[in-house]
Amino acid sequence: MADAPLMVVDGGGVVTGWSRAAEQRFGLSTADATGRPVTEVLARDRAPRAGGGDAAALRVEPLAGEEWAIRAAGEDRDAIGQALLDVMFTQAHVQVHLLDPELRVLRVSDPSPGGSVDERMRGRPFGEACGFEEPERVHAFVREVLDTGVPGIERLFHARPLGAPGGRRTLSVTAFRLQEGQATRQSARGTVLGVAVSVVDVSERVRRRRRDAALAAVRESVGRTLDVEATCRDLVDALVPEYADAGVVEVVDSVLRGETVRPGPLDRDVPLRRAAFGGRLDPAYPVGDVRPVVHGTPYQRALSDLRARVVPLSDVSWSEADPERIRILREFGAHSLLLAPMSLRGTVLGLLSLYRCGDAEAFTEEDIPVAAAMASRTALGIDNARRYVHEFTVASTLQRRLLPQLPEDQPAVETHHLLLPGRASGSWYDTISLPGARTALVIGEVSERGLQASTTMGQLRTVVHALAALDLEPDELLARLYDTVARLARERAQLPASDPLHREALAATCAYAVYDPFTETCAMASAGHPAPLVVDPDGTTGVADLPIGPPLGSTTQEPVAAATFPLRQGSVLALGSGALSEHLAPPSGALRQVLAHPDRPLRELCDEAAYALPDSAELHGSVLLLARTRTMPAERYAAWELPYDTSAPATARRLTSRRLADWNLDDDTGEATELIVSEMVTNAVRYGRPPVKLRLILDRGLTCEIRDGSTTAPHMKYAGAVDEGGRGLFIVSQLATVWGTRYAPGGKTVWSEQTLPPDEA
To answer: Is residue 108's pLDDT more than 90?
Structure first.
């Protein structure tokens, strides 16, 4: 370096540092000079003094610690300094200002011929001379440097534009105090001469950083959700107001419903929904507005050629095509528009519109690739959300179709349900009519979500319906359901390892309850599902004392126990998804408080339950099934105990004939029913044990029940042509719509159901 010392000497006058220039001047190498007294070295000085003399002058300067630097002093150093000043005050990149203590311009770098800039600015206050927007702030900054002597480095200030309106310059200002003795470090208290200020136009650098920051913000915040509208709002929030004064995101309307858009430029009649807006402007159209893009505007052009563009708004030729939008833009002083179509793989998903207003600088061609990258990133997030919405729509539709569409009219139970909206539903419910005017209530939940949840739910619901048709007790039905789920789990484990379902365990819960209106009792069993809430007619509430078995799909092999509890007429049984337990079970639970009024209509209770529950994600898709019990009207059934002898069939036929006449059933139905009763009573007397009881029930159809004390299962035989017996149950199967057997402590019941003509039902 030209300013490096010739040598360095310690406090004892011994040379500790040596330079190449010293080797040439004194004729000693570094090894020979280091360690010698400085007096010996100086005696070998061969450089002539300027103007005559023995040797050129040397200058001594203190260094850190006790060392000293010895430098060459002469006119060559002053010439370099002068040359440096000349360069600084004639170059154009960095504008240098010399200010007096009053902060007036003394000299300014001026590359123009004749020094017109220097002449024009000389004597003016620095803050005003450079066109700063806030000269008082600039003045305070330079005054602080002048007063404290602490340099101010690269402080940014805005200045008025030099050319067209609608923009501003960003200037980087660096200031140093000028003081006597600074160069030689003689004193920190020398006379203050003024301030040297350098000004650099960093507008393009700031613009580039602004564009980079905006793109980084979009990459950071956009695409984190699977909601189309939330993705659009995230985009606007990332860009307004840091990058643009206003922003609008419009999305093809069908995209929000998860539909697939046809590839290629957007047709003129395809509607766009305004999904997000933010900024200083009042929107020309509100968020949620749906309309096609106006033809003959830059918006339509961007969606046609799929190219981002900058559109000046100072003098538009398309104002007649969209006058309301132009009125709003002019009212708020918007002067620059940046458009970027949001497309993915050639398919248009929407449009991004950014505006700058007032004194904000206009968008330039450099903003176009940035806007295109933003739009591309957003299009990817929107498409991911669209795919999720599509899958959710399919899963929700499938689930709705698998659930009961309308509550089935039950003779002794009134039911109503509440299905909370949500995208993570694995809950299901059912009401099943059973023989003997009984009703089965089912509620369950699967661990999967989405389409797979609906598939598993449909499988379980079908299995429960098939098992319920066998008229099994609740604990026996769930035992067989355990076996079915275990078989489904084994089938899942046999899927290829690449199938995501292969790694997902099959787990579910289910509760099955059967209400008998004649005994006013409910028999229930649970496979991992919470116990229901029982509300008595007087409003007293309590959780049913029900043993909870392991969930379906569990490896735990434990028997499932059923419980039977009374349900008086007018009681309400509330079965809910697992997430509702904390609102059903505690005495202060929101649902428990609502259901403490069982006399209200079930529809109103479901509505009040929906209002009382918090809007939390864990409750989305939950189900609440309410059932109000009734007794069977006396005029709709008849029961008798029959003698246990050969006269029982005739007695049963006579009693049946009278009751059917009271019910106004025609001769065909009456004859078929008498024959069914005669055959079933004959079997009970011949193969069963006393007591033998007959019960006729008229509800959805005509039910005949024969109960005896034997647990021997009846078996339908196919008698030969010459056989005298063995045709009883075969006759019953031909005359009845369905028949079966159910078992209970102390015996069995053989039953049959007949569908009645519409005019007799």
So the answer is: no
The confidence score (pLDDT) of residue 184 equals 47
Please tell me the distance from the alpha carbon of residue 531 to that of residue 650, in angstroms, as a whole number. 47
Q: Which two tokens stand for residue 305?
A: 């050629």
Q: Which CATH architecture has domain 207-391?
A: 2-Layer Sandwich (3.30)
| Cα angle: 454, vertex 455, 457; to 5 degrees | 60
Distances (CA, A) of 358 to 166, 238, 334, 365, 736: 7, 21, 6, 19, 86
Decide if 112 contacts 208 (C-beta within 8 A). Answer: no
- Of the candidates 520, 526, 507, 516, the residue with the CA atom closest to the CA atom of residue 442: 526
| Domains of the chain, residue spans | 7-77, 89-201, 207-391, 408-457+491-629, 634-754
Compute, in degrees rounded to 10, the torsion defined by CA atoms 544, 550, 552, 557. -140
Smallest Cα–Cα separation from 232: which of 343, 375, 130? Answer: 375
For 346-437, where are the E strands, in sequence order?
347-357, 413-419, 427-434
Q: Give the whole-angstrom CA distance, residue 272 versus residue 310.
A: 21
Look up the CATH number of domain 89-201. 3.30.450.20
> Is the model's pTM score more than 0.85?
no
β 548-549/521-527 pair status: parallel
CB 251 within 8 A of CB 350: yes
Bridge partners of 750? 706, 741
Largest CA distance in the chain: 160
- Provide the token pair at 12: 């004892």
pLDDT in tens, 625-648: 999 998 888 888 999 999 999 899
Closest CA to 685 of 740, 645, 741, 742: 645
| Same fold yes or no, 408-457+491-629 and 634-754 | no
Beta-ladder partners of 244: none
Residues composing the chain: 761
CATH superfamily of 408-457+491-629: PPM-type phosphatase domain (3.60.40.10)
Three-state DSSP string of 282-348: CCCCCCCCEEECCCCCHHHHHHHHCCCEEEECCCCCCCCCCHHHHHHHHHCCEEEEEEEEEEECCEE
Taking only the tens place, the pLDDT of each residue in 547-603 is: 999 999 887 777 788 999 999 999 999 999 999 999 998 888 899 999 998 889 999
Inter-residue contact 475 to 561 (CB < 8 Å): yes
Q: Which amino acid is located at 164 in the chain?
A: A
User: In this structure, what token pair is assigned to residue 56?
Assistant: 């050129």
Q: Respond yes or no on whether the N-terminal peptide bond of residue 241 is cis (omega within 30° of 0).
A: yes
Domain 634-754 has CATH 3.40.640.10: no
In sequence order, the 6+-apart residues with CB closer than 8 A to the CB of 337 are 298, 310, 311, 312, 313, 353, 354, 355, 363
